[in-house]
Known about the structure:
The complex is a heterodimer of chains A (about 130) and B (about 325).
Chain A: H1 16-31, E1 39-43, E2 48-52, E3 57-63, E4 66-73, E5 76-81, H2 88-91, E6 101-104, E7 109-114, E8 124-126
Antiparallel strand pairs in A: 1-2, 1-7, 3-4, 4-5, 6-7
Chain B: H1 10-35, E1 37-46, E2 49-58, H2 59-79, H3 87-94, E3 96-98, H4 104-119, H5 129-135, H6 146-154, E4 161-164, E5 167-170, H7 182-196, E6 201-206, E7 209-214, E8 222-227, E9 234-240, E10 243-249, E11 254-257, E12 260-263, E13 277-284, H8 287-300, H9 302-306, E14 315-321, E15 327-333
Antiparallel strand pairs in B: 1-2, 2-6, 3-5, 4-5, 6-7, 7-10, 8-9, 10-13, 11-12, 13-14, 14-15
Amino acid sequence: MRSAREFPFFRINDLAVPLVLFFLVFSFNDRGDETSECRLEVNTGDSILHYELSVDSIFTVIGNLGEMEISIENERARISSSPCPGQDCVRQSWLSRAGDMAVCVPSGVFIVISGKDENLSPDAVSY
Amino acid sequence: MRPARKKINSGMILVILLGSLASALLVRIFISDNDKILELKNRTPVLGTFATYIVIAESESAGLILSSMDSLARYLDNELGVYGDGELSGLNMRGYALISELSSDLDYLLKSSLFISSITDSLFDPAMGALVNTWGFPSDPHLPDSADIISALSISGLDNVMVSGDTLSLSSGTILDFGAIAKGYTADRIYNLAREMGAGAALVEIGGEIRCGGDAETGRLWRLAVRNPRGDNIMEMIEIEDGAVATSGDYENYFFDGEQRYCHILDPRTGYPETGTASVTVICANAAFGDALATAVSVGGIDTAENLPDSLFNLIIVVTEDVNGEVTEWRRGGL
């Protein structure tokens, strides 16, 4: 003989659909926080800009000394021109892996690759 | 009698589906807006350089903490600046002040500077403003006449700062300039403010001087890069939970006169820029001491670093460059 049910209009299995939906909503919303591709983070002093490494581009940012040109090509990035006297930042090779960084101290600008290995990016630079 | 079981029709399924969706969204919004711990980051110009602030705090207070940090930086920038209408500028113009009336900020800077000077054979000296002006740093650096350097040197240095009872007085023309410790001190003050306002963790970087930390629950391992003094890449990646990293380098502000390179770090013994030290990085408990020690070791080199008390630092990294351009790295301590 079956025991009497406390909730005759409700079975435990009825929770399945709401629970699935509940987790779907959470997982869908969380997916937006994940970084699926490497990006270029450009710290210009008064702002932090992000660029997709997958899109080839050349753009200009304003540093302490004036305009700097930054290039993205074949999922790599570099400072391609700078008004700084030393030009060390321009001579540096392409950045391609998460955590790679180029700093132009006179301009107060640094660029860093962030992405799948975002934990490799530094929180700050001592210089 | 067994109660009749109601059939669940399609309308009820739709209600359950929509109800579930709504409740999930509501919970999501509640977590996002009320209880979520946010990590906010801001980078802004201050103290003649750039500052980075990172705050990890509850969403309702994180923004206020971040803006308060920026306000404090600007306040200290004015009060501790050599020029302008702040407290230090006023002291320099008057040539004297009552010690009991100094702000806690200036009092701390003065006492800390005297202490660091005492343990570095006066290689750290906050009374070098006249000499700095003679060299034109930072805006118009140039090689002065040797007579001008000798003249500026005679009114520079802590020998020209006198304390008598409650009165602090300066020799005529002597200028107090805390530029070699103020960025680190400001980083410490802003960090402490963030924690006092409820930030579970925070990082402050001002002109490369870093102070960071956090509590056991919210804090995390901070990844701090140290710049290679002879390139734009990273020389060292440091991971710490709590502490400070300060670097002083000859690449920050320099000029060439012919083949000779002159940097902004002046040797109080000679009146000329230091040579031979490319950079000094100090990892220690607070950024003010790290900032001042890095400057002193830049002037004194490895000899000075070898004689510092162990209790003042965790790790010192000195990068030297000889006359042939050969670069050598030297370390003392560890993390």
